[in-house]
Amino acid sequence: MTLKDLITKVTGLEARAADAFKAELAQLKADVTGTIEQLKADLATATASIAGLGNEKAGLEATVAELTGKLSEQNKEFLGFNELLSDACLNGGLLDLKLAADATPEQKRTAALAVPVADKFKAYQGALNAAFAKANLPNSTLPAAPVTSPNAGRTDGSMKREAYFKMTPQAQLEFIKGGGKIVD
Fold this sequence. Notes:
Layout: H1 3-91, H2 105-114, H3 117-134, E1 158-160, H4 161-166, H5 169-177, E2 181-183
Parallel strand pairs: 1-2
């Protein structure tokens, strides 16, 4: 083999190597481009999902705020009931509070508020049953539950402003929807 033949062969090999390298680079470029396009599509999907989750979060936060408000209202109502029941039990001497003999009325009230509502209710119910028994009234002759309608006892569908504001917001709404009138 001559030097010229050898140079021709090497040149041919270089050309084929360059063509193979170019083909390999083209394939690599196509693979990378395809992967980048797939990543862009995945990113778009993830961005849309995040936006949807943001909207869902906002909705859930609104629901939590609403439920927290309702819970707060119910808690206020329960605390008011607890105070009334505590005062009634204190006035009737129905609770064994185990306080010092010189306890102030405020200390007694604080201790009464700490007693579970169910225990106070049982004490109050026991006192009522004892009072009915003492008066020779059997439980079967107890009067029916009082009427709770805001316009009970009124034939014109009106009530005093003071009584209206003592009602719950729902009861106020029902009173107005029912055609009730507020008088001074």
